[in-house]
Amino acid sequence: MSGKVMTGSVLLTHAVGMHARPSVKLTKLAKTFASRIELALSADGPWIDAKSIVKVMATKAPQNATLHFRAEGEDAERAVDALVALVAGDFGEAPTGEPGDVEHVGTG
Amino acid sequence: MKNVGIVIVSHSPLVAEGTADMVRQMVGDEVPVAYCGGNPEGGLGTSVESILRAIDSAWSEAGVAILVDLGGAETNSEMAVEMLPSERARRVVVCNAPIVEGAVIAATEASGGASLDVVKRTAEELSPA
Q1: Is the confidence at residue A106, as pLDDT, over 60?
Q2: Which positions ≥6 away from A3 have C-beta within 8 Å?
Q3: pLDDT at B127
Q4: Among A52, A81, A106, B27, which has the highest number of CB atoms less than 10 A from its own CB?
Q5: Which helix H or strand E contains A63, and what residues bound it?
Q6: Is A37 left (phi over 0), alpha (psi -120 to 50) or beta?
Q7: Model confidence at B128, in pLDDT bands (50, 70, 90)?
Q8: Could you tell me whether strands A66-72 and A5-11 are parallel, antiparallel, or unpaired per DSSP bridges?
Q9: Has residue A88 been placed in a domain?
Q10: What is the CATH classification number for the domain harbouring B118?
Q11: Does residue A37 lie in a domain region?
Q12: Chain centroid to CA A33: how far?
């Protein structure tokens, strides 16, 4: 692959860190790009495949961690921009949305 | 639908429904999802007939991945797969993965257009080695 390598980093402000739902959103977005995309909690790595839901969830990145993205391929720049925007925008979730956002139906 | 479909088979209709809710809310609706749970008498259990209906309702040309909970859910799912017409049966797999986590992860993978084989393998990455 001869594409350029792009990098970007962003602060994870999400209240509960990289739990299931943010991981799903991040992975789904990463998969929409052709580039190889990696994620790390430190600029020195270790780098993991940002398209792997199992690996992304396993990072267990806490709130205030810095996420580093590295992408290589034709759409690398767009990929890094989009992923940074997703994290910066708190994964598109309402600030009060976690973790009590599941409607509970009474048993009565 | 071109994405792999997900079928959730639990002994409990509530577990099955709750798992399907999690998939819908966390992954979205780009993936066909169907679920079944409980025996025809309304108790805990699974039935081949409802599994077949669920497979039919989540059917995708890309195939269907089934997530199960305990023993009978697995054997009845395998029985259901055997009862399918052969051109469908080879596109349905039972995943060896925890039902809730496996369903969410399989659906996430499926939403990106992954093949049935990749969806199954990804769900199974969760299983203890």
Answers
A1: no
A2: A35, A72, A73, A74, A76
A3: 62
A4: B27
A5: none
A6: beta
A7: low
A8: antiparallel
A9: yes
A10: 3.40.50.510
A11: yes
A12: 14
Per-residue tokens: B54 = 């669920």
ipTM above 0.85, yes or no: no
Between chains, do B105 and A54 touch, taking CB under 8 Å as contact?
yes
Number of cross-chain residue pairs from A and B with Cβ atoms under 8 Å apart: 29
Q: Per-residue pLDDT averaged across B101-106, rounded?
A: 96
- What are the tens digits of pLDDT across the range A31-73? 999 999 999 999 998 999 999 999 999 898 999 999 999 999 9
Residue A9: per-residue pLDDT: 95
CB atoms within 10 A of CB B113: 14
Query: CB B105 to CB A51 under 8 A?
Result: no
* B112 part of contact set with chain A, CB < 8 Å: yes
Q: Are the CB atoms for B1 and B26 separated by under 8 Å?
A: no
What domain range is A84 assigned to? Answer: 5-41+52-60+71-92
Whether B14 has its CB under 8 Å from any CB of chain A: the answer is no
Give a yes or no: residue B77 inside a domain: yes
